[in-house]
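Slide 14.
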Amino acid sequence: LANARGDAAAALAQVQALIDRQADNADAWLLKGDLLMRARAGAKTADKTANTADVVAAYQQAIKFKPDSVAAQVALITLHLGQGDAAAAGTQWAALQKVAPKHPQTLFFEAVLAEQKGNFKRTRELTQLLLRGAPNNPQLLLLAGQAELKLNSLAQAELHLAKAVQVLPKAPAPRR
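Slide 15: predicted structure.
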Protein backbone atom coordinates (compact mmCIF):
# COMPACT_ATOMS: atom_id res chain seq x y z
CA LEU A 1 0.00 0.00 0.00
CA ALA A 2 2.86 2.36 0.74
CA ASN A 3 4.22 1.79 -2.74
CA ALA A 4 0.78 2.28 -4.30
CA ARG A 5 0.58 5.65 -2.52
CA GLY A 6 3.86 6.59 -4.16
CA ASP A 7 6.08 6.04 -1.13
CA ALA A 8 8.47 3.47 -2.57
CA ALA A 9 11.11 4.19 0.08
CA ALA A 10 8.70 3.37 2.91
CA ALA A 11 7.55 0.21 1.13
CA LEU A 12 11.12 -0.93 0.66
CA ALA A 13 11.93 -0.15 4.30
CA GLN A 14 8.95 -2.22 5.46
CA VAL A 15 9.98 -5.17 3.29
CA GLN A 16 13.57 -4.89 4.49
CA ALA A 17 12.36 -4.89 8.11
CA LEU A 18 10.43 -8.08 7.41
CA ILE A 19 13.51 -9.65 5.78
CA ASP A 20 15.59 -8.64 8.80
CA ARG A 21 13.14 -10.55 11.02
CA GLN A 22 12.57 -13.47 8.63
CA ALA A 23 15.58 -13.83 6.34
CA ASP A 24 14.15 -16.99 4.75
CA ASN A 25 10.84 -15.42 3.70
CA ALA A 26 10.80 -16.02 -0.06
CA ASP A 27 7.72 -13.84 -0.60
CA ALA A 28 9.42 -10.89 1.10
CA TRP A 29 12.47 -11.31 -1.13
CA LEU A 30 10.21 -11.49 -4.19
CA LEU A 31 8.43 -8.31 -3.13
CA LYS A 32 11.77 -6.60 -2.53
CA GLY A 33 12.85 -7.58 -6.03
CA ASP A 34 9.59 -6.24 -7.47
CA LEU A 35 9.94 -2.94 -5.60
CA LEU A 36 13.55 -2.58 -6.69
CA MET A 37 12.57 -3.41 -10.27
CA ARG A 38 9.93 -0.67 -10.25
CA ALA A 39 12.44 1.79 -8.81
CA ARG A 40 14.94 0.69 -11.46
CA ALA A 41 12.40 1.34 -14.22
CA GLY A 42 12.05 4.95 -13.10
CA ALA A 43 15.75 5.52 -12.48
CA LYS A 44 18.29 7.28 -14.65
CA THR A 45 20.51 5.15 -16.88
CA ALA A 46 23.52 5.18 -14.53
CA ASP A 47 21.34 4.21 -11.56
CA LYS A 48 19.73 1.33 -13.47
CA THR A 49 23.04 -0.49 -13.77
CA ALA A 50 23.73 -0.13 -10.07
CA ASN A 51 20.21 -1.24 -9.13
CA THR A 52 20.28 -4.29 -11.40
CA ALA A 53 22.61 -6.22 -9.09
CA ASP A 54 20.27 -5.57 -6.14
CA VAL A 55 17.24 -6.68 -8.15
CA VAL A 56 18.96 -9.88 -9.27
CA ALA A 57 20.15 -10.59 -5.73
CA ALA A 58 16.64 -10.19 -4.30
CA TYR A 59 15.09 -12.52 -6.85
CA GLN A 60 17.88 -15.05 -6.38
CA GLN A 61 17.22 -15.02 -2.64
CA ALA A 62 13.53 -15.66 -3.32
CA ILE A 63 14.51 -18.64 -5.47
CA LYS A 64 16.97 -19.85 -2.85
CA PHE A 65 14.22 -20.05 -0.24
CA LYS A 66 11.50 -21.17 -2.65
CA PRO A 67 13.12 -22.94 -5.63
CA ASP A 68 9.78 -23.46 -7.40
CA SER A 69 8.94 -19.74 -7.39
CA VAL A 70 7.72 -19.20 -10.93
CA ALA A 71 7.26 -15.48 -10.26
CA ALA A 72 10.91 -14.95 -9.25
CA GLN A 73 12.18 -17.01 -12.18
CA VAL A 74 9.97 -15.11 -14.63
CA ALA A 75 11.08 -11.77 -13.18
CA LEU A 76 14.73 -12.69 -13.74
CA ILE A 77 14.09 -13.90 -17.28
CA THR A 78 12.22 -10.67 -18.04
CA LEU A 79 15.05 -8.60 -16.58
CA HIS A 80 17.68 -10.45 -18.61
CA LEU A 81 15.66 -10.14 -21.81
CA GLY A 82 15.15 -6.44 -21.16
CA GLN A 83 18.91 -6.04 -20.90
CA GLY A 84 19.41 -7.96 -24.13
CA ASP A 85 21.19 -10.81 -22.35
CA ALA A 86 19.69 -13.81 -24.13
CA ALA A 87 22.30 -16.18 -22.67
CA ALA A 88 21.40 -15.31 -19.07
CA ALA A 89 17.69 -15.45 -19.95
CA GLY A 90 18.21 -18.90 -21.46
CA THR A 91 20.03 -20.12 -18.38
CA GLN A 92 17.26 -18.81 -16.14
CA TRP A 93 14.63 -20.34 -18.43
CA ALA A 94 16.37 -23.73 -18.09
CA ALA A 95 16.08 -23.41 -14.31
CA LEU A 96 12.39 -22.53 -14.65
CA GLN A 97 11.81 -25.48 -16.94
CA LYS A 98 13.20 -27.84 -14.28
CA VAL A 99 10.69 -26.70 -11.67
CA ALA A 100 7.66 -25.90 -13.86
CA PRO A 101 8.06 -27.56 -17.29
CA LYS A 102 4.41 -27.24 -18.38
CA HIS A 103 3.67 -23.86 -16.82
CA PRO A 104 2.36 -21.32 -19.35
CA GLN A 105 5.14 -18.87 -18.44
CA THR A 106 7.75 -21.54 -19.12
CA LEU A 107 6.22 -22.19 -22.53
CA PHE A 108 5.88 -18.48 -23.26
CA PHE A 109 9.53 -17.78 -22.57
CA GLU A 110 10.54 -20.84 -24.58
CA ALA A 111 8.62 -19.26 -27.47
CA VAL A 112 10.33 -15.89 -26.90
CA LEU A 113 13.78 -17.49 -26.83
CA ALA A 114 12.97 -19.62 -29.89
CA GLU A 115 11.90 -16.48 -31.76
CA GLN A 116 15.14 -14.73 -30.80
CA LYS A 117 17.12 -17.70 -32.13
CA GLY A 118 15.20 -17.62 -35.40
CA ASN A 119 13.25 -20.83 -34.73
CA PHE A 120 9.94 -19.40 -35.87
CA LYS A 121 8.27 -22.79 -36.37
CA ARG A 122 8.81 -23.63 -32.70
CA THR A 123 7.55 -20.19 -31.75
CA ARG A 124 4.44 -20.83 -33.84
CA GLU A 125 3.84 -24.22 -32.19
CA LEU A 126 4.14 -22.78 -28.71
CA THR A 127 2.08 -19.66 -29.35
CA GLN A 128 -0.71 -21.70 -30.93
CA LEU A 129 -0.77 -23.91 -27.84
CA LEU A 130 -0.75 -20.95 -25.46
CA LEU A 131 -3.38 -18.99 -27.39
CA ARG A 132 -5.87 -21.78 -26.69
CA GLY A 133 -5.69 -20.89 -23.00
CA ALA A 134 -5.17 -17.13 -23.33
CA PRO A 135 -6.66 -16.02 -26.65
CA ASN A 136 -6.62 -12.31 -25.74
CA ASN A 137 -3.15 -12.01 -24.25
CA PRO A 138 -1.56 -9.09 -26.13
CA GLN A 139 2.05 -10.20 -25.56
CA LEU A 140 1.23 -13.65 -26.84
CA LEU A 141 -0.68 -12.28 -29.83
CA LEU A 142 2.24 -10.00 -30.68
CA LEU A 143 4.72 -12.86 -30.46
CA ALA A 144 2.47 -15.11 -32.55
CA GLY A 145 2.06 -12.36 -35.13
CA GLN A 146 5.81 -11.81 -35.33
CA ALA A 147 6.44 -15.53 -35.83
CA GLU A 148 3.80 -15.77 -38.55
CA LEU A 149 5.28 -12.73 -40.26
CA LYS A 150 8.74 -14.34 -40.29
CA LEU A 151 7.21 -17.55 -41.66
CA ASN A 152 5.61 -15.49 -44.45
CA SER A 153 2.12 -16.38 -43.27
CA LEU A 154 0.90 -12.83 -43.72
CA ALA A 155 -2.84 -13.42 -43.31
CA GLN A 156 -2.34 -15.25 -40.01
CA ALA A 157 0.12 -12.59 -38.83
CA GLU A 158 -2.43 -9.89 -39.61
CA LEU A 159 -5.13 -11.73 -37.63
CA HIS A 160 -2.93 -12.03 -34.52
CA LEU A 161 -1.68 -8.46 -34.72
CA ALA A 162 -5.14 -7.01 -35.39
CA LYS A 163 -6.45 -8.83 -32.34
CA ALA A 164 -3.54 -7.48 -30.28
CA VAL A 165 -4.47 -3.97 -31.43
CA GLN A 166 -8.09 -4.58 -30.39
CA VAL A 167 -6.95 -5.64 -26.91
CA LEU A 168 -4.43 -2.78 -26.56
CA PRO A 169 -5.47 -0.07 -29.01
CA LYS A 170 -2.75 2.39 -27.96
CA ALA A 171 0.15 -0.10 -28.04
CA PRO A 172 2.62 0.82 -30.80
CA ALA A 173 4.26 -2.60 -31.28
CA PRO A 174 1.31 -4.50 -32.83
CA ARG A 175 0.53 -1.53 -35.06
CA ARG A 176 4.08 -1.52 -36.42
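Speaker note: The chain has a mean pLDDT of 92.
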